[in-house]
Hints:
This protein is of the alpha/beta class. It is 49% helix and 12% strand.
Amino acid sequence: xxxxxxxxxxxxxxxxxxxxxxxxxxxxxxxxxxxxxxxxxxxxxxxxxxxxxxxxxxxxxxxxxxxxxxxxxxxxxxxxxxxxxxxxxxxxxxxxxxxxxxxxxxxxxxxxxxxxxxxxxxxxxxxxxxxxxxxxxxxxxxxxxxxxxxxxxxxxxxxxxxxxxxxxxxxxxxxxxxxxxxxxxxxxxxxxxxxxxxxxxxxxxxxxxxxxxxxxxxxxxxxxxxxxxxxxxxxxxxxxxxxxxxxxxxxxxxxxxxxxxxxxxxxxxxxxxxxxxxxxxxxxxxxxxxxxxxxxxxxxxxxxxxxxxxxxxxxxxxxxxxxxxxxxxxxxxxxxxxxxxxxxxxxxxxxxxxxxxxxxxxxxxxxxxxxxxxxxxxxxxxxxxxxxxxxxxxxxxxxxxxxxxxxxxxxxxxxxxxxxxxxxxxxxxxxxxxxx
Length: 436
Protein backbone atom coordinates (compact mmCIF):
# COMPACT_ATOMS: atom_id res chain seq x y z
CA UNK A 1 0.00 0.00 0.00
CA UNK A 2 2.82 2.32 0.84
CA UNK A 3 4.43 1.75 -2.58
CA UNK A 4 1.12 2.35 -4.32
CA UNK A 5 0.62 5.54 -2.35
CA UNK A 6 4.12 6.71 -3.23
CA UNK A 7 3.63 6.03 -6.94
CA UNK A 8 0.28 7.85 -6.86
CA UNK A 9 1.88 10.84 -5.14
CA UNK A 10 4.75 10.96 -7.65
CA UNK A 11 2.30 10.73 -10.52
CA UNK A 12 0.25 13.57 -9.11
CA UNK A 13 3.36 15.70 -8.67
CA UNK A 14 4.44 15.06 -12.25
CA UNK A 15 0.97 15.95 -13.51
CA UNK A 16 0.98 19.19 -11.58
CA UNK A 17 4.46 20.01 -12.79
CA UNK A 18 3.48 19.30 -16.40
CA UNK A 19 0.38 21.46 -16.05
CA UNK A 20 2.55 24.26 -14.70
CA UNK A 21 4.86 23.96 -17.67
CA UNK A 22 1.97 24.09 -20.11
CA UNK A 23 0.52 27.13 -18.41
CA UNK A 24 3.82 28.97 -17.93
CA UNK A 25 3.73 32.42 -19.45
CA UNK A 26 5.82 32.90 -22.59
CA UNK A 27 8.63 35.38 -21.95
CA UNK A 28 9.02 38.41 -24.21
CA UNK A 29 12.34 40.25 -24.09
CA UNK A 30 12.22 44.06 -24.44
CA UNK A 31 15.59 45.79 -24.65
CA UNK A 32 15.40 49.51 -23.94
CA UNK A 33 17.55 52.59 -23.34
CA UNK A 34 15.57 54.25 -20.57
CA UNK A 35 17.62 54.79 -17.42
CA UNK A 36 16.74 56.41 -14.09
CA UNK A 37 13.15 57.48 -13.51
CA UNK A 38 12.25 56.70 -17.12
CA UNK A 39 13.55 53.17 -16.66
CA UNK A 40 11.40 52.79 -13.57
CA UNK A 41 8.39 53.90 -15.61
CA UNK A 42 9.21 51.33 -18.29
CA UNK A 43 9.19 48.62 -15.62
CA UNK A 44 5.85 49.95 -14.37
CA UNK A 45 4.39 49.70 -17.89
CA UNK A 46 5.68 46.14 -18.26
CA UNK A 47 4.23 45.20 -14.87
CA UNK A 48 0.89 46.67 -15.91
CA UNK A 49 0.83 44.58 -19.06
CA UNK A 50 1.84 41.45 -17.17
CA UNK A 51 -0.95 42.02 -14.66
CA UNK A 52 -3.50 42.49 -17.45
CA UNK A 53 -3.11 38.92 -18.76
CA UNK A 54 -1.45 35.61 -17.86
CA UNK A 55 -0.24 34.23 -21.19
CA UNK A 56 2.88 36.35 -21.55
CA UNK A 57 5.54 37.84 -19.31
CA UNK A 58 7.19 40.97 -20.65
CA UNK A 59 10.80 41.32 -19.49
CA UNK A 60 12.24 44.84 -19.86
CA UNK A 61 16.05 44.92 -19.94
CA UNK A 62 18.07 48.14 -19.82
CA UNK A 63 20.97 47.96 -22.32
CA UNK A 64 22.56 51.39 -21.95
CA UNK A 65 22.06 54.54 -24.02
CA UNK A 66 20.45 54.59 -27.46
CA UNK A 67 23.66 53.82 -29.34
CA UNK A 68 24.63 51.03 -26.96
CA UNK A 69 21.16 49.47 -27.11
CA UNK A 70 21.07 49.46 -30.90
CA UNK A 71 24.60 48.06 -31.11
CA UNK A 72 23.77 45.33 -28.60
CA UNK A 73 20.67 44.30 -30.55
CA UNK A 74 22.60 44.05 -33.82
CA UNK A 75 25.27 41.90 -32.17
CA UNK A 76 22.61 39.72 -30.53
CA UNK A 77 20.84 39.16 -33.84
CA UNK A 78 24.06 38.02 -35.45
CA UNK A 79 24.53 35.59 -32.56
CA UNK A 80 20.88 34.48 -32.86
CA UNK A 81 20.18 35.68 -29.33
CA UNK A 82 18.09 38.70 -30.24
CA UNK A 83 15.27 40.10 -28.09
CA UNK A 84 11.71 40.28 -29.40
CA UNK A 85 11.59 44.08 -29.09
CA UNK A 86 14.34 46.68 -29.18
CA UNK A 87 14.05 50.42 -28.65
CA UNK A 88 15.88 52.33 -31.40
CA UNK A 89 16.27 56.10 -31.61
CA UNK A 90 14.93 57.97 -34.60
CA UNK A 91 18.25 58.41 -36.40
CA UNK A 92 18.64 54.64 -36.53
CA UNK A 93 15.51 54.27 -38.68
CA UNK A 94 17.27 53.99 -42.03
CA UNK A 95 19.71 51.43 -40.66
CA UNK A 96 16.88 49.33 -39.25
CA UNK A 97 14.96 49.51 -42.54
CA UNK A 98 18.05 48.33 -44.37
CA UNK A 99 18.39 45.29 -42.12
CA UNK A 100 16.49 43.03 -44.51
CA UNK A 101 15.27 39.81 -42.96
CA UNK A 102 15.90 41.05 -39.42
CA UNK A 103 12.80 43.20 -38.96
CA UNK A 104 9.20 42.14 -38.46
CA UNK A 105 7.23 45.25 -39.60
CA UNK A 106 4.69 46.33 -37.02
CA UNK A 107 1.82 46.64 -39.49
CA UNK A 108 2.42 43.02 -40.58
CA UNK A 109 2.84 41.82 -36.99
CA UNK A 110 -0.49 43.30 -35.93
CA UNK A 111 -2.28 41.80 -38.93
CA UNK A 112 -0.75 38.37 -38.41
CA UNK A 113 -1.67 38.42 -34.72
CA UNK A 114 -5.23 39.53 -35.39
CA UNK A 115 -4.87 42.66 -33.25
CA UNK A 116 -7.00 45.70 -34.06
CA UNK A 117 -4.67 48.31 -35.55
CA UNK A 118 -5.50 51.57 -37.32
CA UNK A 119 -2.58 53.85 -38.20
CA UNK A 120 -5.05 56.76 -38.35
CA UNK A 121 -5.31 56.55 -34.55
CA UNK A 122 -1.72 57.71 -34.24
CA UNK A 123 -0.44 61.27 -34.70
CA UNK A 124 0.60 61.70 -38.33
CA UNK A 125 3.54 63.91 -37.33
CA UNK A 126 4.88 60.94 -35.36
CA UNK A 127 4.05 58.01 -37.62
CA UNK A 128 5.26 59.70 -40.80
CA UNK A 129 8.82 59.27 -39.61
CA UNK A 130 8.44 55.51 -39.29
CA UNK A 131 6.43 54.51 -42.37
CA UNK A 132 7.52 53.11 -45.71
CA UNK A 133 6.70 54.68 -49.07
CA UNK A 134 3.28 52.97 -49.01
CA UNK A 135 2.42 54.46 -45.62
CA UNK A 136 2.86 51.23 -43.64
CA UNK A 137 4.11 51.60 -40.06
CA UNK A 138 7.37 49.72 -39.63
CA UNK A 139 7.91 50.27 -35.91
CA UNK A 140 5.74 51.16 -32.93
CA UNK A 141 6.04 54.77 -31.72
CA UNK A 142 6.89 54.91 -28.04
CA UNK A 143 8.84 57.89 -26.74
CA UNK A 144 8.58 60.71 -29.25
CA UNK A 145 9.64 64.23 -28.35
CA UNK A 146 10.47 67.52 -30.00
CA UNK A 147 12.64 70.39 -28.76
CA UNK A 148 11.16 73.41 -26.98
CA UNK A 149 12.44 76.53 -25.24
CA UNK A 150 12.60 76.50 -21.46
CA UNK A 151 13.08 79.88 -19.81
CA UNK A 152 13.70 81.17 -16.31
CA UNK A 153 10.51 83.08 -15.58
CA UNK A 154 11.94 84.47 -12.33
CA UNK A 155 15.01 85.84 -14.14
CA UNK A 156 12.80 87.31 -16.86
CA UNK A 157 10.78 89.22 -14.28
CA UNK A 158 13.95 90.50 -12.61
CA UNK A 159 15.35 91.63 -15.96
CA UNK A 160 12.10 93.23 -17.08
CA UNK A 161 11.47 90.77 -19.90
CA UNK A 162 7.72 90.66 -20.47
CA UNK A 163 7.35 87.34 -22.32
CA UNK A 164 9.22 84.45 -23.85
CA UNK A 165 10.99 85.40 -27.09
CA UNK A 166 9.37 84.18 -30.30
CA UNK A 167 12.14 85.07 -32.75
CA UNK A 168 15.93 84.86 -32.69
CA UNK A 169 16.36 88.66 -32.54
CA UNK A 170 14.08 88.59 -29.49
CA UNK A 171 16.27 85.85 -27.98
CA UNK A 172 19.28 88.13 -28.38
CA UNK A 173 17.45 91.07 -26.79
CA UNK A 174 16.25 88.95 -23.86
CA UNK A 175 19.73 87.51 -23.33
CA UNK A 176 21.30 90.96 -23.20
CA UNK A 177 18.70 92.18 -20.68
CA UNK A 178 19.31 89.12 -18.51
CA UNK A 179 23.07 89.68 -18.63
CA UNK A 180 22.55 93.30 -17.62
CA UNK A 181 20.54 92.02 -14.64
CA UNK A 182 23.46 89.86 -13.51
CA UNK A 183 22.97 86.53 -15.26
CA UNK A 184 26.17 85.38 -17.04
CA UNK A 185 24.60 83.59 -20.01
CA UNK A 186 21.62 84.11 -22.27
CA UNK A 187 20.90 80.63 -23.59
CA UNK A 188 22.35 77.21 -24.06
CA UNK A 189 21.21 74.17 -26.01
CA UNK A 190 21.08 70.43 -25.62
CA UNK A 191 21.56 67.98 -28.51
CA UNK A 192 22.97 70.67 -30.79
CA UNK A 193 22.72 68.72 -34.05
CA UNK A 194 19.11 67.70 -33.36
CA UNK A 195 17.99 71.14 -32.16
CA UNK A 196 20.14 73.64 -34.08
CA UNK A 197 20.51 71.76 -37.38
CA UNK A 198 17.79 69.14 -37.82
CA UNK A 199 14.90 70.88 -36.10
CA UNK A 200 16.11 74.33 -37.13
CA UNK A 201 15.81 73.15 -40.73
CA UNK A 202 12.29 71.75 -40.35
CA UNK A 203 11.09 74.77 -38.32
CA UNK A 204 12.22 77.02 -41.20
CA UNK A 205 11.05 74.59 -43.93
CA UNK A 206 14.60 74.11 -45.18
CA UNK A 207 15.95 70.78 -46.46
CA UNK A 208 18.69 68.95 -44.60
CA UNK A 209 19.46 66.86 -47.66
CA UNK A 210 18.28 66.19 -51.19
CA UNK A 211 15.75 63.51 -52.13
CA UNK A 212 13.21 64.69 -49.52
CA UNK A 213 15.74 64.41 -46.69
CA UNK A 214 16.47 60.84 -47.74
CA UNK A 215 12.87 59.60 -47.77
CA UNK A 216 12.90 59.36 -51.58
CA UNK A 217 16.06 57.31 -51.96
CA UNK A 218 19.55 56.49 -50.77
CA UNK A 219 21.23 58.71 -53.38
CA UNK A 220 20.90 61.80 -51.22
CA UNK A 221 23.37 64.53 -50.28
CA UNK A 222 23.45 66.97 -47.38
CA UNK A 223 22.68 70.66 -47.88
CA UNK A 224 23.23 71.97 -44.34
CA UNK A 225 25.84 74.40 -45.69
CA UNK A 226 23.13 76.52 -47.32
CA UNK A 227 23.06 80.31 -46.76
CA UNK A 228 20.24 79.87 -44.20
CA UNK A 229 22.21 77.34 -42.17
CA UNK A 230 25.46 79.32 -42.40
CA UNK A 231 23.70 82.48 -41.22
CA UNK A 232 22.20 80.71 -38.20
CA UNK A 233 25.31 78.85 -37.09
CA UNK A 234 27.45 81.90 -37.78
CA UNK A 235 25.23 83.99 -35.53
CA UNK A 236 25.44 81.42 -32.72
CA UNK A 237 29.24 81.47 -33.07
CA UNK A 238 29.23 85.25 -32.78
CA UNK A 239 26.97 85.10 -29.72
CA UNK A 240 29.29 82.51 -28.16
CA UNK A 241 31.94 85.25 -27.81
CA UNK A 242 29.81 87.25 -25.37
CA UNK A 243 27.95 84.29 -23.80
CA UNK A 244 24.64 85.35 -25.27
CA UNK A 245 24.96 81.71 -26.33
CA UNK A 246 27.11 79.30 -24.35
CA UNK A 247 27.83 75.78 -25.57
CA UNK A 248 27.62 73.06 -22.93
CA UNK A 249 27.98 69.67 -24.64
CA UNK A 250 26.61 67.34 -27.29
CA UNK A 251 23.69 65.76 -25.45
CA UNK A 252 22.04 67.26 -22.38
CA UNK A 253 25.32 68.20 -20.72
CA UNK A 254 24.32 71.87 -20.76
CA UNK A 255 21.33 71.35 -18.44
CA UNK A 256 23.24 72.40 -15.28
CA UNK A 257 23.85 75.82 -16.84
CA UNK A 258 20.07 76.33 -16.79
CA UNK A 259 19.41 74.58 -13.48
CA UNK A 260 22.09 76.70 -11.78
CA UNK A 261 20.67 79.92 -13.29
CA UNK A 262 23.84 80.62 -15.24
CA UNK A 263 21.84 80.64 -18.50
CA UNK A 264 18.27 81.96 -18.46
CA UNK A 265 17.12 80.00 -21.53
CA UNK A 266 17.62 76.36 -22.50
CA UNK A 267 16.59 74.56 -25.69
CA UNK A 268 16.10 70.83 -25.41
CA UNK A 269 13.60 68.01 -25.66
CA UNK A 270 10.03 68.34 -24.45
CA UNK A 271 10.86 65.13 -22.59
CA UNK A 272 13.26 67.18 -20.44
CA UNK A 273 10.22 68.66 -18.71
CA UNK A 274 10.33 66.27 -15.75
CA UNK A 275 14.04 66.91 -15.27
CA UNK A 276 13.63 70.66 -15.49
CA UNK A 277 10.73 70.56 -13.03
CA UNK A 278 12.75 68.48 -10.58
CA UNK A 279 15.88 70.65 -10.81
CA UNK A 280 14.44 74.16 -11.06
CA UNK A 281 14.38 74.45 -7.27
CA UNK A 282 15.02 78.17 -6.80
CA UNK A 283 13.09 79.68 -9.69
CA UNK A 284 9.90 79.45 -11.69
CA UNK A 285 10.26 78.30 -15.28
CA UNK A 286 8.16 78.46 -18.42
CA UNK A 287 7.97 76.56 -21.70
CA UNK A 288 7.66 78.16 -25.11
CA UNK A 289 8.09 77.32 -28.79
CA UNK A 290 11.48 77.36 -30.46
CA UNK A 291 12.47 80.75 -31.88
CA UNK A 292 12.62 81.39 -35.62
CA UNK A 293 14.20 83.90 -37.98
CA UNK A 294 11.40 86.27 -39.05
CA UNK A 295 13.03 87.10 -42.40
CA UNK A 296 12.45 83.51 -43.59
CA UNK A 297 8.92 83.56 -45.02
CA UNK A 298 8.17 79.88 -44.45
CA UNK A 299 8.94 80.00 -40.72
CA UNK A 300 7.69 78.74 -38.42
CA UNK A 301 6.70 75.46 -40.08
CA UNK A 302 6.73 72.43 -37.77
CA UNK A 303 9.38 70.71 -35.72
CA UNK A 304 10.33 67.06 -36.05
CA UNK A 305 10.53 64.32 -33.50
CA UNK A 306 13.32 62.77 -31.56
CA UNK A 307 13.13 59.88 -29.16
CA UNK A 308 12.65 56.31 -30.26
CA UNK A 309 10.32 53.58 -31.45
CA UNK A 310 10.03 49.88 -30.74
CA UNK A 311 11.23 47.55 -33.48
CA UNK A 312 10.35 43.86 -33.58
CA UNK A 313 13.10 41.42 -34.54
CA UNK A 314 12.56 38.20 -36.47
CA UNK A 315 13.53 34.76 -35.20
CA UNK A 316 10.97 33.90 -32.51
CA UNK A 317 7.89 31.70 -32.28
CA UNK A 318 4.57 32.86 -33.71
CA UNK A 319 2.91 32.47 -30.31
CA UNK A 320 5.40 34.86 -28.75
CA UNK A 321 4.74 37.41 -31.46
CA UNK A 322 1.07 37.34 -30.51
CA UNK A 323 2.21 38.49 -27.09
CA UNK A 324 4.27 41.29 -28.64
CA UNK A 325 1.21 42.44 -30.61
CA UNK A 326 -0.96 42.36 -27.48
CA UNK A 327 1.63 44.43 -25.65
CA UNK A 328 1.63 47.02 -28.45
CA UNK A 329 -2.15 47.27 -28.19
CA UNK A 330 -1.82 47.75 -24.43
CA UNK A 331 0.97 50.31 -24.86
CA UNK A 332 -1.11 52.32 -27.34
CA UNK A 333 -4.18 52.51 -25.12
CA UNK A 334 -5.25 56.05 -24.22
CA UNK A 335 -4.79 55.44 -20.50
CA UNK A 336 -1.23 54.09 -20.75
CA UNK A 337 -0.15 56.71 -23.28
CA UNK A 338 -1.69 59.60 -21.35
CA UNK A 339 0.08 58.49 -18.19
CA UNK A 340 3.43 58.12 -20.03
CA UNK A 341 2.99 61.54 -21.69
CA UNK A 342 2.12 63.31 -18.46
CA UNK A 343 4.92 61.69 -16.48
CA UNK A 344 7.73 62.13 -19.02
CA UNK A 345 6.93 65.04 -21.32
CA UNK A 346 7.11 62.78 -24.37
CA UNK A 347 4.36 63.32 -26.91
CA UNK A 348 1.15 61.31 -26.68
CA UNK A 349 1.39 59.07 -29.73
CA UNK A 350 -2.38 58.83 -30.25
CA UNK A 351 -5.08 61.45 -30.60
CA UNK A 352 -7.10 59.63 -27.93
CA UNK A 353 -4.25 59.99 -25.41
CA UNK A 354 -4.00 63.72 -26.15
CA UNK A 355 -7.76 64.22 -25.76
CA UNK A 356 -7.78 62.23 -22.50
CA UNK A 357 -4.90 64.30 -21.11
CA UNK A 358 -6.70 67.49 -22.11
CA UNK A 359 -9.97 66.37 -20.50
CA UNK A 360 -8.12 65.56 -17.29
CA UNK A 361 -7.00 69.20 -17.05
CA UNK A 362 -3.30 68.39 -17.25
CA UNK A 363 -2.42 71.18 -19.68
CA UNK A 364 -4.28 73.76 -17.62
CA UNK A 365 -2.49 72.64 -14.46
CA UNK A 366 0.91 72.45 -16.19
CA UNK A 367 1.19 75.39 -18.59
CA UNK A 368 3.51 74.81 -21.52
CA UNK A 369 3.25 71.03 -21.61
CA UNK A 370 1.20 71.25 -24.80
CA UNK A 371 3.75 73.45 -26.62
CA UNK A 372 5.45 70.44 -28.20
CA UNK A 373 2.14 69.16 -29.56
CA UNK A 374 1.28 72.55 -31.04
CA UNK A 375 4.70 72.76 -32.70
CA UNK A 376 4.28 69.33 -34.25
CA UNK A 377 0.68 69.68 -35.40
CA UNK A 378 0.26 73.40 -36.18
CA UNK A 379 1.00 72.90 -39.87
CA UNK A 380 0.93 69.86 -42.13
CA UNK A 381 4.51 68.60 -42.64
CA UNK A 382 6.29 69.33 -45.92
CA UNK A 383 8.98 67.15 -47.46
CA UNK A 384 11.45 69.37 -45.62
CA UNK A 385 9.73 68.97 -42.25
CA UNK A 386 8.50 65.38 -42.25
CA UNK A 387 11.74 64.16 -40.77
CA UNK A 388 14.97 62.67 -42.07
CA UNK A 389 16.07 59.26 -43.21
CA UNK A 390 19.79 59.04 -43.76
CA UNK A 391 21.92 55.95 -43.47
CA UNK A 392 24.73 55.96 -40.90
CA UNK A 393 23.24 59.07 -39.32
CA UNK A 394 24.37 58.02 -35.85
CA UNK A 395 27.96 58.46 -37.04
CA UNK A 396 27.08 61.50 -39.14
CA UNK A 397 25.69 63.25 -36.07
CA UNK A 398 29.11 62.82 -34.48
CA UNK A 399 30.66 64.47 -37.52
CA UNK A 400 28.22 67.40 -37.30
CA UNK A 401 29.00 67.74 -33.59
CA UNK A 402 32.73 67.78 -34.26
CA UNK A 403 32.41 70.49 -36.88
CA UNK A 404 30.07 72.61 -34.74
CA UNK A 405 32.56 72.41 -31.89
CA UNK A 406 35.29 73.65 -34.25
CA UNK A 407 33.05 76.59 -35.14
CA UNK A 408 32.24 77.43 -31.49
CA UNK A 409 35.97 77.30 -30.68
CA UNK A 410 36.74 79.76 -33.50
CA UNK A 411 38.89 77.24 -35.36
CA UNK A 412 36.62 77.34 -38.42
CA UNK A 413 34.09 79.76 -39.85
CA UNK A 414 30.48 78.65 -40.06
CA UNK A 415 30.88 78.14 -43.80
CA UNK A 416 34.07 76.10 -43.42
CA UNK A 417 32.67 73.93 -40.65
CA UNK A 418 29.37 73.20 -42.39
CA UNK A 419 31.11 72.57 -45.72
CA UNK A 420 33.29 70.00 -43.93
CA UNK A 421 30.25 68.42 -42.25
CA UNK A 422 28.56 68.06 -45.65
CA UNK A 423 31.63 66.57 -47.34
CA UNK A 424 32.36 64.11 -44.54
CA UNK A 425 28.69 63.21 -44.14
CA UNK A 426 28.28 62.57 -47.87
CA UNK A 427 31.19 60.12 -47.76
CA UNK A 428 29.32 58.00 -45.23
CA UNK A 429 26.11 58.28 -47.24
CA UNK A 430 27.89 56.87 -50.30
CA UNK A 431 29.29 53.98 -48.26
CA UNK A 432 25.83 53.22 -46.87
CA UNK A 433 24.31 53.42 -50.37
CA UNK A 434 26.93 51.04 -51.75
CA UNK A 435 26.26 48.52 -48.98
CA UNK A 436 22.49 48.59 -49.47
